[in-house]
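Q: Sequence in, structure out?
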Amino acid sequence: MNSTLAKTYHRVVESLENLTFRRIVIVIFRLVVGFVLLRDGFLIVNDPYGSGIVAEGIISELGLRLLMPLSLVLAFIVGSFKVSVGCCLLMGTNVGVAAMNLIIYLFIEFFVLVKLDSPTSWLIARNVAFILLGALIFYWRKHSVKIYTKRTEWVIELYSFAFSVLFAAHCYISLPMLDTTAAKEGNSMKSAFLTEAKALGMDTAKVGRELECLADTGYSFVLLSRHLPDASTMRKDEINTLYEYSVGHGYPFVCLIGEEVTEDEMREYIIESKCAEYPIVKFEKSIIECVARSNPELLIMKDGTITRKFSAYKIPKLEDALGEELYGHQSESSTGRTILFSVIAYLLPLVVLLAYDYLIELLKWLIKKIVMKSKKS
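A: Exactly. Output:
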């Protein structure tokens, strides 16, 4: 029995010392960890507003209320960090630095998860596993197959981080490129809200009664705000003009807010928004947080179905009846095509950088050949 265990142990040691085996294992580990990080990071930068709300909840649970104003910034940083480290691991660039950054981040995230009132066991287990994998990737970093040379590989992490920040900023201003909410364009708004209410364990009958303020037929406008005092009033003129447009064309217009507001807060909002006259109705905050990705967010409805969605920074200007306007019809743009364009926009500079990298290597090789040839002659 002992001899069998000893043989097994020696075989494992020999396998671990085998260079080919190490290279295969580190590539597999890099791809697995890199893909998971890239996916998680993309979901954050694709939805920075929703991720900021999640960050608020975590900060509140940890009792670090001083960091509450930085929740959105933290969402940007964490999402971009995950994307950049994931890309480095997938492409095999700056593997040692990426693995060390990963380990440090995972330790921080591990302690945060443990401190939460209701920690997710599988996330804690995944973090422990990824810390071990990250340590192994760092230990065997010299055996990792590289695409870029040391001259340019440091650029990848910085470029990926910067690209992710810009991507997150675009999604924050123009709404997520990939809509992961129940209230997608083309879906029934009431059905989406009731679905979220059921998932949150709310009284769907009560929520249904509260939704009676929404129009079921024809065109209508719905403005969503999770917290009215924090709602952006940068486009206050456009919202007021849109309300006047809705009144002129007979389209219902209602603003649903997630929290009760005091008279002073309402007065301040009305003053800031230049005498907003549209009706404001109290609704369930948690549902608004689940479906709205801007504060406020505008929905154009037709027969109870969401036709278009707009962030607070992209309020449209309308003149003709909605049936004759572009925004009165569902968007024909493909989400898949948009994401593919973003991937190409990310990869194109990296392809150019790779070509530059190998062109320099080729020139160095040619110069070396010429010098050696001249010495021989």
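The CA atoms of residues 242 and 318 lie 7 Å apart.
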